[in-house]
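Quick illustration, no need to memorize.
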Amino acid sequence: MINLINPPSEATALDVATGGGHTAISLAKRVEQVVAIDITPEMLAEAEKASSLEDISNITFRAEDVHNLNIPDCQFDIVTSRFAAHHFSDVKKALQEMCRVLKPGGKLYILDCSVFDGVEPEKEINRIELLRDSLHQCSYSPCLWHQLLKELPLTIDQTSLLREQYELPQWFDRMGTDQNSREEIFRILSSLSEECKIRYPFGDDYITTYRFEILATKS
């Protein structure tokens, strides 16, 4: 992310849905000021603790809802969001808000879980993600992401669909997925078309997923 954005040292950044604060901390080491927001106070507390352990002092932590940011227009040189968009209840509104607070010429960076283009993966892999994580809303395919982004005043600099392999049962354990849901996930994987199985190989000890990475500049 840092290499792709190549942030100037005088930049100000907003990290949306900061979670444990990893992205905000990485940015804070390279830019002048970071505002890290999350809707969950408990996560903000964890992120603040993590930043203190690294002696980071240029992050401001705030409770905010990405769908309705209490932030004026055109405030930030960089807006980031990693592994969060699939939880947004209204992704169009969230993207509009992220774009609104970005300065003209500023950089928008998004990395999130994704699915391969097509009706089958868009439906079935999202079924799997919801079984694994009850808070899951939608993992968007590259095609769907491009549809969302073209409605915004953005120039797309780079996009990448990245294939990932996760070890089992750790992938389940991280979300506390129950045994029935785990078994249903394997039933769905086994019933995928042969074409889709090529995209999503799996075994008793691993599962294949995708991430989509976006870098864009506000017009």
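The mean pLDDT is 97.
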